[in-house]
Specification:
By secondary structure, this protein is mainly β. The protein is 12% helix and 39% strand. Strands 1, 2, 3, 4, 5, 8, 9 and 10 form an eight-stranded antiparallel sheet that branches. A three-stranded antiparallel sheet has the order 12-11-13, with no helix packed on it.
Length: 207
């Protein structure tokens, strides 16, 4: 079985935001989609380890901002590579506005947003599936949306080549953020220190 077949699926990338008790937070997801059109319903799958997950679970509301091809890597670092449990992800960030539901939506590097009221949840072990009708949505600009492939090829920094040529050592490169771990074997429980993705998102190479 070749798990790389999953990479052939077409994924978009989104900033998922929520608000609770005056605190705004967000994270990067690639699992969002329309499931019905009468009424318009959206589904998202969110890792239970994400602080945004807990906020949605409690409040029953969220907004999905659709990342465009004008987004830069800083947007992914801000919302994807740190935890809202101990960081205010909106501190010093001006590329957002407040939606009708009181939740921030992202205007910088995004081409639209969709706000949802949760009506159903489904436990998926590591994730929760949230489904609900659209309460508000708007197109912000006509820049094409970013796919996972576009992110990999055009936004994510490429791993830096070793200075003075390769050293012949085995390395593991994170396919999400480009972080390099040097070593013959990557621990199965390894977590990327930069983007927090698991060992399954690393690819073996020789430097």
């Amino acid at each position: 079985m070749n798990e790389k077949a999953l990479f052939q699926l077409s994924y978009g990338l989104y900033v998922l935001t929520a608000a609770r008790e005056g605190k705004q937070n967000g994270c990067i997801i690639n699992t969002a989609g329309q499931v019905t059109n009468t009424p318009n319903r959206i589904q998202i799958a969110v890792n239970k380890a994400n602080y945004t997950h807990d906020m949605i679970k409690e409040t029953g509301e969220f907004t999905v901002s659709i990342i465009s091809q004008k987004a830069d890597f800083e947007l992914f670092k801000r919302f994807g590579f740190q935890s809202g449990k101990d960081t205010d992800k909106f501190e010093g960030f001006k590329g957002y506005a407040v939606g009708a539901n009181g939740i921030n939506y992202i205007t910088e590097g995004c081409n639209g947003y969709i706000s949802v009221k949760v009506e159903q949840t489904l436990d998926l072990d590591t994730h929760t599936l949230f489904i609900g009708p659209v309460t508000d949505m708007e197109v912000l600009n006509d820049t094409p949306s970013t796919t996972y492939t576009y992110y990999q090829e055009n936004i994510k920094p490429k791993p830096q080549a070793p200075q003075g040529g390769g050293n012949g050592k085995t390395a593991w490169v994170c396919k999400i953020c480009g972080y390099v771990y040097e070593g013959e074997e990557l621990p199965t429980d390894y977590i990327c220190p930069l983007c927090k993705h698991p060992a399954s998102d690393f690819e073996k190479t020789v430097r």
